[in-house]
Amino acid sequence: MTFSEEIKQYALSLGFDACGICRATDSGEEERYMRWLAENGHAGMTYMARNIDKRLDPRLLVEGARSVISVALNYYPHERLPDEVPQFAYYAYGKDYHDIVREKLGRLFEFVKSRYAGVSGRYFSDSAPVLERFWAAQAGLGFIGKNTLLIIPGKGSYFFLGELIIDMELEYDSPITRNCGKCRRCLDACPTGAIERPHYLNANKCISYQTIENRDEISPGIVPLLSNNVYGCDICQKVCPWNRYARPHTTPEFMPSDEFLSLDLKKLIDMDEEDYRRIFHKSAVKRAKFSGLKRNVIAISKTPDK
What is the C-alpha separation between 43 and 64, in angstroms, rounded? Predict the structure, then answer.
């Protein structure tokens, strides 16, 4: 068994659902990425326009980088909020994924170092300028769908991604050849038309951006189209045929509390900051802050079906 195979086996033993490895090199994505920025596809996410050189080439992010080990961790829920109550994106049901994925990556890195003491590197999960979906695709985990998300054949797209980038040569995987074919369900289902064309998402129109990353008022043209989404949006994933293969996760930390599952519009309207801190303790929902969540609640309470 090669060391690359041992790494993958150990990653699976930590609870990751997929692991692949590719060479750390220039991504070749500069033209596409710079065009997206020039067209303001990143909206108010100014951090996307910083450290562009490192984002495009992990060798500039991690000194001596030779290999990118990509992992995926399932978050598809066992139990979901009822359709009639305000919706939170599935990824935010449990504890903050940043902490969970990084903890597992830290253990994976310790395994690598236990075998090769001189190895150095860094690990990330949505916490550094890394083209996560690109490297996951290069490592053969799946392919990037028309909705811009990584799709793992036979498993779907409800996965957190993470990377361990090290200064060691390994055996590498190859990208897979699967793709979305002629399907365009995600483009047709997006209520705001945020997926303007295959593989291109305009964050200005995206419900996830508007309800999470946006620090200002939600765009007036988006408010009537929120579709009961109070934090994030899973519409383009819910309609994706590949997600018929989605199965509930096996990570205890991602299980939602009973109090979270009992949330309805009235409870969200009445929620004060103390309630917010208790219910969303160690949750990714903190990204929007209490003020942002209340803004979203007010917005969906004004939509026609409320």
Answer: 33
Q: For residue 229, what is the enclosing H or E element?
A: strand 229-231
pLDDT digits (tens, 9 = 90+) for 51-96: 999 999 999 999 999 999 999 999 999 999 999 999 999 999 999 9
pLDDT of residue 306 exceeding 60, the answer is no
Packed helices 3-13 and 97-115: angle between N→C axes, nearest 10 degrees: 140
Question: HSE on the CB side for 253, CA within 13 Å?
Answer: 16
Q: How many CB atoms lie within 10 A of CB 249?
A: 23
Rg (CA), the chain: 20
H helix or E strand, kind and range, residue 201: strand 200-201
Per DSSP, what are the bridge partners of residue 150?
Answer: 144
Q: How far is CA 169 from the centre of its chain?
A: 27
Query: At 15, which amino acid appears?
Result: G
Asked if residue 60 lies in contact with residue 131, where contact means CB atoms within 8 angstroms, the answer is no
Residues with active-site annotation: 126
- Chain-centroid distance, C-alpha 185: 20
Strands 200-201 and 121-124: unpaired
* Token output for 69: 């080990």
